[in-house]
Every structure is written in C-alpha cells, then in structure tokens.
Design a protein that fits this description.
- The complex is a heterodimer of chains A (148) and B (391).
- Chain A is built from six helices and three strands; from the N terminus they run αβββααααα.
- By secondary structure, chain A is an alpha+beta fold.
- A three-stranded antiparallel β-sheet of chain A has the order 1-2-3.
- In chain A, a hairpin with a 4-residue loop joins strand 1 and strand 2.
- Chain A is globular and about 45 Å long.
- Chain B has two domains: 131 residues, Alpha-Beta Complex (Aspartate Aminotransferase, domain 1), CATH 3.90.1150.10; 240 residues, Type I PLP-dependent aspartate aminotransferase-like (Major domain) (Aspartate Aminotransferase, domain 2, 3-Layer(aba) Sandwich).
- In chain B, the strands form three sheets. A seven-stranded mixed β-sheet of chain B has the order 2-8-7-6-5-3-4, with helices on both faces. Chain B has a three-stranded antiparallel β-sheet with strand order 9-10-12.
- The longest helix of chain B has 39 residues.
- Chain B is globular.
- Classes of the chains: A alpha+beta (148), B alpha/beta (391).
- Chains A and B meet through strand 2, strand 3 and helix 2 of A and helix 9 of B.
Chain lengths: 148, 391
C-alpha cells in the first residue's frame, strides 16, 4: 500500500531538483507543524537527534484511547530539506485513513516514509529520516503514561 | 542568465565576462589548429598561447616560462604538491600546510604521507589565521615545502603571505619552497609574486570571470618540478596534452580585466558587504559571524543563523532566486559539516547553520536589499518549524 512509482531525481538538468516533487512539496508546504506547544495537550511526545548532528525532531501525538490509534500528529524539526519533508510525510502517514494504530506506528520503517516521498538521494537516506523514530518515541511515551 | 536570479556565490564560481567570451571565440571556430603543428594554422594557435602566457606573466610579475597552464585550480594545487614534493624529496620529506587549506591541497598531502612524506597541519586561530610563531616552530631542516592559502574560500580570511615568505626566506635559503593557492584572492588582492615573495602560486580562471576548466601554476624557474601528466611534452613537459587555446586566451583576458578593475572593485565590494552584513546583524537575531571580521576578503560573508539549518535555508533562498552556499553537513558529500568552520572552533550545531554569501562584480545594493527581504522571510519560516528555539 505504500508503493508509489519512484520519481527520477535529477539535479543535472537545471530544471529538476535535488529532491523529488513530493519532497519539494512537503518541504515548501510542510503539514501538521506545531508552532507552539504551550496550549497543546499532547498524549505523547518524542524527541530524536541532536543539534550537533544537524537534525532534531520533536513529535507530539494525540490518541484515540479506545481505538488505540493516533488522532493527531504534530512536529517541529531542525534539519535539512529532506528531514523537514520526511517529518511532514510521517505526520501525514500517521494520521491518514482514520489514524495509524499503535502497533503499525511502532513498526513504521524509514523505507516506508522514503517510498512515499518518491525516494531520496542515497546520501540522505539514513541520516535525514528520523520521523519513524520520533513517532515510536511518542507512542512509547503515551503507553508509559497510560500504564501508570 | 535568469534576470530574477541574485547570484551571491561568487567564491564558488563567477559568470563569464562578455569580453572574455569574445576573446575565446576565434579558437572555438576557425582557430582550431594544434599548437604543436608546424603549419600556419598551428602556429597561430601557438602564438595565441604564448601571448596569453606573456600577458599573465607580466600581470603577476613573473617570467613567461614560469607559467604552467593546468585544467583547473585544483590541478595546479595538485601539481605544486605532488610535483614539488617528489622532485625535491632528496632534500627532505617534510611538508607544512594549514588545516583550512582547500581539499585540492589536503588530499594530495594525505597521499604524499602514504609515499613517505611527513605533513604538519598547522592549526589556525579562532579567526582563521595561521600563526607565524607556530609556523616557525614547525619548521625543520628537512622541510621542503610550505603551502598556505592566500585567502580562504569559505570564510574569506586573508593569510599573512608576505610575512610568511619573509619568515621562510630570511636566511636566503631556497628551501622550503613556498606555495600559495591564490584562487580566492585574485579579484581584490595583489597577486604580484615578487611583492608577495612566493615561489609558487595557484590561480583559477573560473573565479575571475573567466571560463572554467583552466588555471595555472606559477613556479619560480629555479625550482625543478615533476609532471603529473606525461605524454606529448606540452607546457615544457610539465603538462602534456593538446592545449585548450580558447580557455587559455579566455583566462588571460579575464586576468587582464580583473587586474584593471581591482583598485575600484575592492573598496566597492567592501562597502557593499559591510552594508549588507550590518543589515543582517540588525534585522535577524542570533546571528554569528564565522572568521575574522577585518582580515577578510571584501566580498565574503559567512554567518551562522541559530536554529536554521543551512541546506534548508539555501534551498528556500534558491526558490526565491538567491544563490548562496552553506557549510552544513547536509550539503556535503561525506555528511560532515565544514572542516574549515570546525577548525576555527565553530560548534557543530552552528556549523550546520552556516550560510555563505559572496558578492561579485555584478552585485548591486539593490540585490542585497532584495536578498535581505527574502532572507528575513526564509529565516522566519525555518525558525517557526525548527525544534531549536532562539531567545
């Protein structure tokens, strides 16, 4: 269900971009950003990365406790274009079709995000996709609080 | 060029001057003869090359036979390092370079180490400057070569080349040989080799509004050097391969124009740069300047904008027509942030937030004003979505 035809990325023709159209779309119009968390009553929160590494992502989720699904997924990211786009895409994936169930969310793989983004340059593949980890942290955070 | 574009990446490369293109065209059309051929068509190519060599030699205060044309500034640097080290290894095997040299110097050093040479990498201070005391302390009887760049490509700091030359040559010895990569300096600084006191100097055409794919190495004729490319024996055996007459003629023209403009261009750029930088500092919060603020090329701005990752910023600015560059890891091939910035003690988190604007001959005040507007918006956008908050 995550399969999409990989768009050819091409930086060489001047018209094309380093990244796919989907990355470009999510970079220039990121979805589900939480500009200010002060009044946001999150059920779970996850942080991954470090400023020294050039990537920090924070994810906040609200959940449907009975259905055990994610209702809302918000984020902020310090990072390069593909880090921003992958955070945005992750938040879309987590909340589409009635929301991702906890099990799926905890097993989300970076490949699935990259696939939906229409691919990333090889060099960016491993470093800039933190969304799945941040989401996993946020779900874990919720589950820990829930069990208390 | 796209009229909408504001090109602020002149340290990366420069647009070609129309007069340069005009100087090149005859050799891309009817003047196709091989300079090594005996007949007229070949001789006129040869003549064009030697005229260009003469012109360049006069500009830098050298003799004609001290100029070797190469395929780039990188090749000239490689030739200086490999060629001089290998030709003088009987005299010693110790080389000194700074840690902020261009990779075209550092990579040959790594390879020379494998060949049995010993390299001292001189640390620079927080401003990005080489210390004369440390250089003096690093000198050994077997030091055959010292290579220190004239001006740094990322932070624009200008190294004390004349003082280094005086230090190295104070006892009148011919060793160590002193090479300097002057690719970034040529637009605004003196490149008279006698005045500077260098034995070897690298210059690239693509940074002085000339064509890409051509550069040269000046080498004082008292020094032997080993070629890297061998074959037909062109360039007095130092760089075989049929000469690219158009590029050579273009580079000579470019250098001629650059030299003529230098006196006025330096102060103009300085004024424009200081105006632009003052606005950035005033209108954007949490901005730090990387590298010395005074001993610096007049066209260079290198700053870190806290909480704003460099690659993302460069791409947002590009979308609005502004071309600039960054030392962020995400923009590099090896995913590490700029070694120049980390060498001068810029913390990693700020190295990722670095952005470089390098003004050029075509940059106007209006360009910097437009860029300011676009930059403020882009920084605001990225700071809103950034997980690192600035107070």
């Amino acid at each position: 269900m995550f399969l999409r035809k990989k768009k050819k990325t091409c930086a060489a023709d001047g018209e094309g971009w380093t990244y796919s159209e989907m990355v470009k779309d999510h970079f220039f119009s990121p979805r589900n950003i939480l500009f200010d968390e002060t009044d946001y009553d999150a059920d779970g929160m996850g942080t991954v990365g470090s400023p020294e590494c050039g990537d920090v992502m924070v994810v906040w989720i609200k959940v449907d406790k009975d259905a055990r699904r994610i209702k809302e997924c918000k984020w902020r990211t310090f990072g390069c274009a593909s880090a921003i786009a992958s955070a945005s895409m992750m938040s879309v994936m987590a909340t589409e079709n009635g929301g991702m169930d906890f099990n799926t969310a905890q097993r989300l793989k970076p490949e699935q995000i990259v696939e939906r983004l229409g691919g990333l340059p090889d060099i960016k593949y491993h470093c800039s996709v933190l969304g799945h980890e941040a989401l996993r942290e946020a779900v874990l955070d919720y589950l820990e609080h829930e069990s208390k | 060029m796209d009229k909408r574009q504001i090109y602020l990446d002149n340290a990366s490369t420069t647009p070609i001057d129309p007069a340069v293109l005009t100087a090149m065209l005859p050799y891309l059309k009817e003047g196709y003869g091989n300079p090594s051929s005996l007949y007229g068509l070949g001789r006129s190519s040869k003549y064009a090359i030697e005229q260009s060599r003469q012109k360049i030699a006069e500009i830098i205060g050298a003799d004609r036979e001290e100029i070797v044309f190469t395929g780039s500034g990188t090749e000239a640097d490689n030739l200086a390092l490999f060629g001089l080290a290998r030709a003088h290894k009987e005299k010693g095997r110790h080389i000194i370079v700074s840690t902020i040299e261009h990779k075209a110097i550092l990579e040959p050093c790594k390879r020379l180490e494998k060949e049995g040479f010993e390299v001292t990498y001189l640390a620079v201070d927080k401003k990005g400057l080489v210390s004369l005391e440390e250089l003096r302390a690093s000198l050994r009887p077997d030091t055959i070569l010292v290579s220190i760049m004239y001006a740094n490509n990322e932070i624009g700091t200008i190294e004390p080349i004349k003082k280094i030359a005086q230090l190295l040559k104070k006892d009148g010895s011919i060793y160590p040989i002193f090479h300097s990569d002057a690719c970034q300096a040529a637009n605004t600084q003196s490149i008279d080799v006698k005045e500077l006191g260098v034995d070897a100097l690298t210059l690239s055409s693509s940074k002085i509004y000339g064509p890409k794919g051509i550069g040269f190495l000046y080498l004082n004729k008292k020094y032997a050097i080993e070629p890297m490319i061998v074959g037909g024996g062109q360039e007095r055996g130092l760089r075989s391969g049929t000469e690219n007459v158009a590029l050579i003629a273009g580079m000579a023209k470019a250098l001629e124009i650059t030299e003529k403009k230098k006196k006025l261009e330096g102060p103009r750029l300085l004024q424009l740069r200081d105006y632009f930088l003052a606005r950035i500092k005033k209108e954007i919060k949490s901005v730090s300047i990387n590298g010395d603020t005074k001993v610096r090329l007049p066209n260079n701005i290198n700053i870190s904008i806290k909480g704003v990752e460099g690659e993302a910023l460069v791409l947002l600015l590009d979308e609005q027509g502004v071309c600039c560059s960054t030392g962020s890891a995400c923009s590099s091939m090896d995913l590490t942030p700029s070694y120049v910035l980390t060498s001068i003690g810029v913390p990693l988190e700020l190295a990722h937030c670095s952005v470089r604007f390098t003004l050029g001959r075509h940059t106007t005040k209006k360009d910097t004003d437009k860029t300011m507007k676009i930059l403020i918006k882009a920084v605001e956008t990225l700071r809103k979505i950034s997980s690192i908050k600035c107070s």
